[in-house]
Amino acid sequence: MTQKRILNLIFLGPPGAGKGTQARMIQEKYSIPQISTGDLMRNEISSGSSLGNRLKSFIESGGLVPNELTLSILLNRIKKEDCKNGFLLDGFPRNVEQAEELEKALNGMNTELSGVIALEVDDSDLISRLSDRRICKGCGDSYHLQFKKPSVDGKCDHCGGELYQRRDDSEEVIKNRLKVYHEQTAPLIDFYSEKKKLSKINGKNKIDMIFSEICDIIDKLKS
Ligand code: AP5
Ligand code: MG
Ligand code: ZN
Prior knowledge:
This protein is of the alpha/beta class. The protein is 48% helix and 15% strand.
């Protein structure tokens, strides 16, 4: 019997690159959970918890949440049972310290990173992608007024949920998120390339084409 290979993946890319869109499709195809630190943080804020209150101002300004808080949220999540055959990190790590802490944690769990997929898109495209993005209140799926329209205006195709705009998708906050990405997150491209873990994808292509390129990379990692 062949042993099932664990797939511990990272999706790296600027805000609006399509990490969430692709991660949801990969989660379904390969049965590994998509772990978006942004989604976990927004859920925490919606719950009204004291942790959520601490996270709010960082997210609304487009800055990074401090590493200590982010790491505790992420490490608690990857220790859960559904991650034992692997996971797909969407939006983590976002700086070198987070990447180093992840490596230590995976070593401690007797596992390791399988690969990092970087989605590359120019800033000018990202602004329009994010300004016209709409997200389902029910299932969190994301749509775009031009590139991924829902069948019925304002409603999710999957669950019929109402579509809304994220508070940090205003032009001013988007610009700050892009600045933070270039200063703090983009250095991870070299970091993972030096470790021979990185695959780059042109994130400007059509959603389905990107998906099939990502599947090819994952299938190679699995074999
Ligand atoms: P997070 O929620 O991770 O947001 P982000 O990184 O800014 O990325 P987005 O979710 O905006 O974009 P995406 O790449 O998922 O794109 P999507 O698929 O939706 O983080 C939010 C905040 O939380 C951060 O600013 C920070 O404060 C905090 N945070 C989170 N993680 C943290 C961490 N590790 N450390 C510290 N702080 C952290 O697609 C975008 C749009 O484009 C959609 O409308 C979609 O339909 C459309 N689209 C997708 N693909 C295509 C395509 N190929 N062609 C055309 N349109 C497309
Ligand atoms: Mg996302
Ligand atoms: Zn929905």
